[in-house]
Amino acid sequence: MSAIDSLIEALQVLPGVGPKSAQRMALHLLLRQRQGGVALGAALQAAMRDVRQCAVCRNLTEHEVCGICRDERRDDSLLCVVESPADVLAIEQAGGFRGRYFVLNGRLSPLEGIGPEELGMDQLEARIEDLKPDEVILATNPTVEGEATAHYVTQLIGGRVQRISRIAHGVPLGGEIEYTDGGTLAHALQGRRSIGHDLG
Amino acid sequence: MSAIDSLIEALQVLPGVGPKSAQRMALHLLLRQRQGGVALGAALQAAMRDVRQCAVCRNLTEHEVCGICRDERRDDSLLCVVESPADVLAIEQAGGFRGRYFVLNGRLSPLEGIGPEELGMDQLEARIEDLKPDEVILATNPTVEGEATAHYVTQLIGGRVQRISRIAHGVPLGGEIEYTDGGTLAHALQGRRSIGHDLG
Fold it and tell me: Per the domain annotation, does A43 fall within a domain?
């Protein structure tokens, strides 16, 4: 196989990239972005070789312990449990949260054979033992599996943490009530908060 | 910068890939496709290092002369002139054409400073001198620049080739006349061909 065909085939491991867009990508790099292609090749080699799970929080990192776990300015009283490293990135990019994380790298799914061991529940218990946070925030996804996982974690650590909370579900900012699905609206109404003073 | 951030940044050289999809790609490779990621890195390094222009037809290849130019079973009597290596791939994948190619790697565009030298017109003349094809097929795109380029090539080589042709423009297979634009329809009508016997 020629070097170009090999590249077109290799590009198809990327999510959402089929033969046609792989071909477009390969030609784009070869004709207009040689430097970028070389840099991408090097970045891939380095990341695939070095990146692993943080020994403390199970997030992705090229170190033994990740940057967030090593950062002494983070708030030890808050521990946020998420399903995936992508959730950590999203919450960090949103800003505002300065606590610690624990990454399950999955959600409970008996059908797929994903149980408590695969999600590192032992490690989560040890982490809570060690960190002694005031509050554990369960930020799993609002799906059936995500809710089941949140429920399981609650059962597991209840009694050992002062407060366990679940992130709010409701109408997203910029969303329109008219086009919001019923389940979300029900959550938004149930989770309503008073503004200003309540009389009486 | 961490290895993951470097990878996310490097992925954005790919066409149509912004920060969000670069992040999704990076995490997909790291969490589910390590082997594929390693292979992609190696394929990129090899292709960026080895692939260059064919000395004969200006197509992309990792050899001095490309596979099509080296293939002795190809038909020397037909030379197809295209704008880019992507066009060669498309025509090869369509099947049916067994002649030779010449790749301009661009189209005449005075505004972008692309003139006859950039398109290898000297090389095209030399190629025609050498190959002595019966017919040169101009398969540049049906755009203003593509038509201007076809016109320029016609002026340049006219008189030295028995036949110069232009690929047909018309309603694409599977297309609907109702939804075909006016320019294409005009071309389709002008380029009509008789079927069966004309009477008289």
Answer: no
Is A161 strand, coil or helix? coil
Do the beta carbons of residue B132 and residue B78 sit within 8 Å? no
Q: Considering only CB atoms, which chain B residues are within 8 Å of A14? A: 25, 28-29, 40
- Please give, rounded to a whole number of angstroms, the shortest distance from the CA of B137 to a CA of chain A: 23
Question: Residue A11 class from Cβ within 10 Å (0-12 exposed, 13-18 middle, 19+ buried)?
Answer: buried
Query: Could you tell me the pTM of the whole model?
Result: 0.81
Asked if the Cβ–Cβ distance from A34 to B48 is below 8 Å, we say yes
Which of B44, B61, B107 to substitute to test the interface with A, most A CBs within 10 Å? B44
Distance, CA of B97 to CA of B118 (rounded, Å): 26
**Residue-wise pLDDT tens digits, B136-186:** 999 999 889 999 999 999 999 988 999 999 998 888 888 888 888 888 888
Report the number of distinct structural domains present in chain B: 1
Q: How many C-beta neighbours within 10 Å does residue B70 have?
A: 13
- pLDDT tens digit string along A35-82? 999 999 999 999 999 999 999 999 999 999 999 999 999 999 999 999
Span A17-34, pLDDT tens digits: 999 999 999 999 999 999
pLDDT for residue A198 is more than 80:
no
> How distant is the Cα of A121 from the closest Cα of chain B, in angstroms?
19
Instruction: Tell me the two tokens of residue A93.
Output: 């990019």
Which residue of B4, B28, B70, B114 to mutate against A (max A Cβ within 10 Å)? B4
Q: Is A150 contained in some domain?
A: yes
Phi, psi dihedrals of residue B92, rounded to the nearest 5°: -65, -40
**Amino acid at the residue A195:** I
Asked if residue B178 belongs to a domain, the reply is yes
Provide the CATH number for the domain around residue A113: 3.40.1360.10
Residue B101: inside a domain, yes or no? yes
ipTM field? 0.82
Chain A residues touching residue B25 (CB < 8 angstroms): 14-15
What is the domain extent for residue B109? 75-190
Yes or no, beta carbons of B39 and A10 under 8 Å apart: yes
Give the mean pLDDT of A140-145. Answer: 91
pLDDT of residue B197: 65
